[in-house]
């Protein structure tokens, strides 16, 4: 299950589809071919997304993971 506290490195490894989704939202999760450091929440906050929007991202990603 994907949470706001998941490390980007783990997210990318376990849920490769998340890279494209996050890039479309403007959240960079890969730099120079390597996952960035930090959590999903930290990466989203750096792009000025609020908690409600971050919760929506997490919901979308979890829905994608189960389909």
Protein architecture, described:
The protein has helices spanning 8-14, 17-24, 40-46, 51-66, and strands at residues 30-31, 34-35. It is mainly α. It has one domain (8-66). Strands 1-2 form a two-stranded antiparallel sheet. Strand 1 (30-31) and strand 2 (34-35) form a beta hairpin. The chain is globular and about 30 Å long. The two termini are 13 Å apart. The model has no long low-confidence stretch (mean pLDDT 91).
Question: What's the quick description here?
Answer:
By secondary structure, the chain is mainly α. The chain has four helices and two strands, in the order ααββαα.
β-strand percent reads 5-15%
How many structural domains in the coordinates? 1
Form type: globular
Low-pLDDT segments: none
Q: If helices are DSSP runs of H or I spanning 4 or more residues, what is the number of helices?
A: 4
- Average pLDDT across residues? 91
């Amino acid at each position: 299950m994907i949470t706001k506290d998941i490390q980007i490195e783990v997210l990318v490894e376990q849920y490769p589809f998340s890279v494209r989704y996050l890039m479309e939202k403007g959240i960079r999760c890969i730099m120079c071919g390597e996952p960035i450091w930090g959590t999903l929440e930290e990466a989203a906050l750096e792009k000025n997304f609020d908690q409600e929007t971050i919760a929506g991202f997490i919901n979308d990603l979890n829905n994608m993971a189960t389909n």
